[in-house]
From TrEMBL:
<dbReference type="GO" id="GO:0005737">
    <property type="term" value="C:cytoplasm"/>
</dbReference>
<dbReference type="GO" id="GO:0036503">
    <property type="term" value="P:ERAD pathway"/>
</dbReference>
<dbReference type="Pfam" id="PF12937">
    <property type="entry name" value="F-box-like"/>
</dbReference>
<dbReference type="GO" id="GO:0019005">
    <property type="term" value="C:SCF ubiquitin ligase complex"/>
</dbReference>
<dbReference type="InterPro" id="IPR036047">
    <property type="entry name" value="F-box-like_dom_sf"/>
</dbReference>
<dbReference type="GO" id="GO:0031146">
    <property type="term" value="P:SCF-dependent proteasomal ubiquitin-dependent protein catabolic process"/>
</dbReference>
<feature type="domain" description="FBA">
    <location>
        <begin position="110"/>
        <end position="288"/>
    </location>
</feature>
<dbReference type="GO" id="GO:0006516">
    <property type="term" value="P:glycoprotein catabolic process"/>
</dbReference>
<dbReference type="InterPro" id="IPR001810">
    <property type="entry name" value="F-box_dom"/>
</dbReference>
<dbReference type="GO" id="GO:0061630">
    <property type="term" value="F:ubiquitin protein ligase activity"/>
</dbReference>
<feature type="domain" description="F-box">
    <location>
        <begin position="42"/>
        <end position="89"/>
    </location>
</feature>
<protein>
    <submittedName>
        <fullName>Uncharacterized protein</fullName>
    </submittedName>
</protein>
<dbReference type="Pfam" id="PF04300">
    <property type="entry name" value="FBA"/>
</dbReference>
<dbReference type="InterPro" id="IPR039752">
    <property type="entry name" value="F-box_only"/>
</dbReference>
<dbReference type="InterPro" id="IPR007397">
    <property type="entry name" value="F-box-assoc_dom"/>
</dbReference>
<dbReference type="InterPro" id="IPR008979">
    <property type="entry name" value="Galactose-bd-like_sf"/>
</dbReference>
<keyword id="KW-0833">Ubl conjugation pathway</keyword>
Amino acid sequence: MDDAGPKSKRIRISGDDKDWGMDQPIGGLSNLASPLQKEKGLVMLPELPAAVLEEVFVNVPPKEVVCVCRLVCREWKELADRATLWRERCRRDRFQPHDITRLPTDWRMFYFLCKKRRNLLKNPSAEEQFEGWKILENGGDKWSIEDVSEQPHPDETVKKFFVTSYEPCKKFQIINLSKEGYNKSFMDEIQPDILISDWYAPRWDCGSMYEICVELLNQKKKVISKFCPEPVYFEQWNDHKWEQMTHVFRGYGRGVRFIRFCHGGSDTKNWAGWYGIRVTKSSLEIGPSEPE
């Protein structure tokens, strides 16, 4: 004889909920259990309509949807994998593709890449002197830092920049992807876009040169792929404003574990002081990029 009551699911829980991988149990599952159910490690939950359950999932922390809810049963797994669920999370968090005519093929991956995306470079705009940077070359009167004044940056929040002297000046950072939360399997299997951006500008009254080289490195710090365009030269008495150098690494293959970001330059007149190229607001991000 069929049970006339509402359908339910049997879910095994641990006594302290740590098996759920969270500090707090989802929906207070432990509190719903009777003493006998707790002793047996089982909880009976009513089966909710898919639309209601999807709304619940949208409000559960995303990592727990994947690592906890998805493992409960087949129905929950199918729901946790639905594109509509992750597309709705993207909408609520305002994560939208740059080109609406080319939608993501995997909305869940798109969501997590957007959620995790941030600038991996430390001190990109000289607010903390040279903290985070290693000096590779320090020619002439060495690197210096100046305030943005007569040549405002397009981003009004940028207040300082690094400036080179009359002999080559270069500085760099090496990003350890594992320490930044991008593990080996993720980098090898997903191979997400790696986005590079750097802002540079010359003085109007002195010629200068700008150069950048970004390298994707393996575990032994051998080069897998690199972006090293030809140096950019500016003539004296120029009217150039701030310009942006950008690049996107795609399809770079397996094995990327570190990224080396190096930039700099010099003036071309050998003038004492700091008449060389200016750089600021450097950026290195991992995440969806605008399609080419």
